[in-house]
Amino acid sequence: VQQIEGGYTQAVIDADDDGASDEDEAGPAQLVAQLMELIQAMLLGPQLRILLKNRVRSLLQLLVPFMRVTEAQCRIWTEDPNEFLAHEEDDRVRGCAIRLSGEYLVGEL
Question: pTM value?
Fold first, then answer.
């Protein structure tokens, strides 16, 4: 995950391609989203929860860079916040947005 963060930032976060790079179903975003969901599932076990609670800072430092808003999303937000919110709601329905997986994980931590 540490090794793909730089490439992900350059290819997805900094890209202003109307979100096309953010929708790759087999890319690093999906890997990290699945990792976040795995960690969230691990929090259900009491012993694993204690183990992970001691590493919250490290986990957040590792995963938060993937949860940032893309350049395309920033542009949409500045042009029309309502369109941005509608797009976010669509992502929530599809259940595949990395930021939403991160949001749920942070809520559990």
Answer: 0.66
